[in-house]
Amino acid sequence: MKVTNKLLLLAVLFALSCGKETTRPQTQQQQQQQLVTNDTPQHTVQRFIGAYEQKRAAEYADLFTGDFTYEFSNGTDPDLVTKYSTGWFKTDEDTAAMHLFHGYMPQGQPRAPAASSINIEFANTAPVDDGGGGIDPATHKFLFTRVDAQIVIPTSPDPTNFLIENNTNIFYLVRGDHALELTASQPADSTHWYVYRWVDITTASASPGSPDSPLPSSPATWGKVKGLYR
C-alpha cells in the first residue's frame, strides 16, 4: 500500500512538472517592440520612428524609395548643404543610419561608436493629402512636424548627448503602387507606403539645447547627426 501511494505521488509530481512552462531569457530581438506595418501613411511614420529608435537598419532602409532624396537646412546646416550640393540619396541615408546604429571606422580617424540610446518625438504623426503640382492626393501625402530628439553616443570620458530641439521637418510619402525603384523586400502595392523625400527647414532660431539635461549636451540638428555619421 505504501509503495502504491509513493507511485501515485510521483505520478502527480511528474504531471505538474510537465505542465509547467519553461521560462527562457528573451533574446534582444524579442525584447524589441514590434513595429507596425507601413500599411497607412500614419503607420509608416510610426514605423519610421520605431525603427530609428530601436536601431533596426534593415527595417529603416526599407521605408525609403529608391529615388529618395533628403535636403539639409540652409538656415542651420549651410556647410552640409554645400558638401552635399549634388544631393543626399537613399544610399547616403542607409549608410548614415547603419553607422549610427552600429558604429563604424571613419577613414583615418578613431572609431565612431554606435548610439547607446535614441529617442525621437514628432509633434505630429498624421500625414495629410499632398495635391500640389498635379500630384494625386490619394497616393501622395506629406507630414509637416516639429521634431525633438536625444541621441546619446558613448564617447570617452563622457558620453556625447546630442539634443535636437525644435527642428522642423517635412516628410513626403507615396503609396507603394506609385513608388519608384522599390526592391524585392518592398511590396509595390496599394497597401504599403514609403518616404520618397525629406526636407529639413529648421531655422537658426531653433532652441540650442536644454541646460537642464542630466548629460553634457551638444546642440544639433538631425541633419548634423546624419552628416557626422555618413
Give a description of the structure.
The protein is of the alpha+beta class and 230 residues long. The protein has one domain (35-228): Roll (Nuclear Transport Factor 2, Chain: A), CATH 3.10.450. Helices cover 29% and strands 26% of the residues. It has helices spanning 2-19, 28-31, 41-53, 57-61, 78-83, 90-102, 222-228, and strands at 64-71, 88-89, 117-122, 128-129, 140-153, 160-175, 193-200, 217-219. Strands 1, 2, 3, 4, 5, 6, 7 and 8 form an eight-stranded mixed β-sheet that branches. The model is unreliable at 6-30 and 208-216 (pLDDT under 50).
Number of separate strands: 8
Number of helices: 7
Taking all Cα atoms into account, the compactness measure Rg is: 24 Å
Describe the sheet with the most strands.
Answer: 8 strands, mixed
Oligomer: single chain
Reconstruct the topology from this structure.
Layout: H1 2-19, H2 28-31, H3 41-53, H4 57-61, E1 64-71, H5 78-83, E2 88-89, H6 90-102, E3 117-122, E4 128-129, E5 140-153, E6 160-175, E7 193-200, E8 217-219, H7 222-228
Parallel strand pairs: 1-7, 6-8
Antiparallel strand pairs: 1-2, 3-5, 4-5, 5-6, 6-7
List the defining traits of the structure above.
29% helix, eight-stranded mixed beta sheet, 8 strands, alpha+beta, globular, 230 residues, Nuclear Transport Factor 2, Chain: A
Would you summarize the structure shown here?
The chain is an alpha+beta fold. The protein contains seven helices and eight strands.
